[in-house]
Structure formats: C-alpha cells, structure tokens
Amino acid sequence: SSSSLPYRRVVLKLSGESFCRSREGGISMAEVEATSKQIKTIVDQGVELAIVCGGGNILRGKQFAAVSEAIKTPTAHYMGMLATCINGLALQDALENAQVPTRLQTAIRMENVAEPFIRRRCLRHLEKKRVVILAAGTGSPFVTTDTAAALRARELEADVVLKATRVDGIYSEDPERNPHAVRYSEISYKDVLQKGLQVMDAQAVHHCMEAKIPILVFNFQREGNMLRAVMGEKVGTLVHA
Ligand code: UDP
C-alpha cells in the first residue's frame, strides 16, 4: 500500500537518451514504450509522479549554438526546450496506451497541445494520481532540464528526484574512460559539487541541497530498477546531506 512507500511524491527526470536507442538520436517509440512500462510499475505502487522530460536526443542548446554563427544561443536553447515538448507528447501517448492517466504541462505555452505549467493545478493532478509530464524545462534559456527537475521538485515539495540514466550511478571518474572508477552507493551534495562529478548539473544539485531533497541516480535500462528506486532499495547512487 502507499502508506509503506519511502517516497510519496517523486520527480522523475528522464533524459533525452531514454527516448532513443543507445548512441542514436531522434525518437524511438519502442524505447519510449519500454520506459513507459517501467513507469507504470511505479505508478501502480501509488506514488505521485511528475516527469521532467529532457531533449538531448533531439537537440542540446549549447551544442547547437556552437554549430553556426547565425544561430543565437538563446534561440538554440528555446529549440532545445521545444525538443522536450516533442518527447513529452510521445511519452504521453505511450503512457496512456499503457493505461496510465496523464497530463502534459509545458513551461512555454502551447495551448493546442498541452496545459501550461501551473503549480497548483499540477499538484491537483498529482493528488488525483495523474502522472504529470513536465516539458519545456524552466521556460528560460541557459539552463538544463536537470535544473528544471530540481526546481519543480522544490516547488512541488517532492520527496526525491530520480534521475534515470544509462550509467549505474555516480562514479569517482568516468567509467567509460577509466575501468577502475568506483561507483558510490551514497555521496553528499557537497562532495558531488567539490569533486565536480558529472552527473547532474551543479545548479540542480545546489537546489536539491538547499531544499534537502535527495537525488537518486540510477540506470533505467536494467529491468526493475525504476521500481527498486521508488521502493527505496539500494540501486544506483543516492545523493543526500
Ligand atoms: N533547455 C533550456 N532551458 C531549460 C531546460 C532546457 O534552455 O530550462 C534547453 C537546453 O538547451 C538543453 C535542451 O533544452 O540543452 C534540452 O534539455 P537537456 O539538455 O537538459 O536534455 P537531456 O540532457 O536531459 O537529454
């Protein structure tokens, strides 16, 4: 029952990579559907869930701005935010196809396809156990969807930020470069920031630290991990005070 859940309200950050095949770009509905099946397992536990969509599978503002002198950096960031809306729409249909009721709310208005993000309305949906998909990040350029996830977690008073990635957690060094890198099972916010560990952007970690919201970084591709994460089992790396 939901009374035994370690986390009552969860913000799940799905990076763009969970919308496409490994080392590819664009959207793969097969991947989105697989992710949605995992999401259904946690919704079935009775958690209140808000999902912040990344957009890196389509476009990252910083990278795109570097490609040409013609494109202004803020424009590239707005394009990145719109990319997260494309992902959000795909996720919404995949979840509803799996019988999970959803609402899509965006930080940039697009009333023909989604509700605007309104904190109190979002909370109401969560109370009614609708999964709220949050897209367009913060609505402002120069930040990432990690920061959006941290900010939404703060304003929605979430109990945890789950960061779904393709690595098993936070390592002392890049595990793809150094095979001797060790994975932390727990680490403090301060250590993540001081060691400059590349897991979540520093602003996001800072917000979670200020609000004392733990961050769990885990590999969403391992079957059952999302459920384990929500049930408070030891999986990935837990960042806390
Ligand atoms: N973005 C932004 N403001 C926000 C959130 C995102 O400008 O509040 C832009 C930014 O350019 C970013 C892109 O949207 O690169 C896609 O998001 P992100 O890179 O965080 O996606 P992920 O790495 O999770 O796939």
Describe the fold and architecture.
The chain has helices spanning 29-43, 61-67, 73-97, 119-127, 145-155, 189-194, 202-211, 225-230; strands at residues 9-14, 48-53, 102-106, 115-116, 131-135, 160-165, 186-188, 215-219, 237-240. It starts with 8 loop residues before the first strand and ends with a strand. Strands 4-3-5-2-1-6-8-9-7 form a 9-stranded mixed β-sheet, with helices on both faces. It contains 8 helices and 9 strands. With 241 residues, it is α/β, with parallel strands linked by helices. Helix content is 37%, strand content 17%. β1 (9-14), α1 and β2 (48-53) form a beta-alpha-beta unit. The chain has a single domain, classed as Acetylglutamate kinase-like (Carbamate kinase, 3-Layer(aba) Sandwich), CATH 3.40.1160. α1 packs across α3, α2 packs across α3 (73-97) and α5 (145-155) runs parallel beside α7. The structure holds uridine-5'-diphosphate. The site of uridine-5'-diphosphate has 22 residues, from α2, α3 and α5. Uridine-5'-diphosphate (UDP) binds next to α2, α3 and α5. Keywords: ATP-binding, Cytoplasm, Kinase, Nucleotide-binding, Pyrimidine biosynthesis, Transferase. Residues 9-219 form the Aspartate/glutamate/uridylate kinase domain. Homohexamer. Its EC number is 2.7.4.22. ATP binds at residues 13-16, 56, 60, 165, 171, 174.
Write the layout of secondary structure elements.
Elements: E1 9-14, H1 29-43, E2 48-53, H2 61-67, H3 73-97, E3 102-106, E4 115-116, H4 119-127, E5 131-135, H5 145-155, E6 160-165, E7 186-188, H6 189-194, H7 202-211, E8 215-219, H8 225-230, E9 237-240
Parallel strand pairs: 1-2, 1-6, 2-5, 3-4, 3-5, 6-8, 7-9
Antiparallel strand pairs: 8-9
Helix pairs in contact: 1-3, 2-3, 5-7
Subunit structure: Homohexamer.
Keywords: ATP-binding, Cytoplasm, Kinase, Nucleotide-binding, Pyrimidine biosynthesis, Transferase
Pathway: Pyrimidine metabolism; CTP biosynthesis via de novo pathway; UDP from UMP (UMPK route): step 1/1
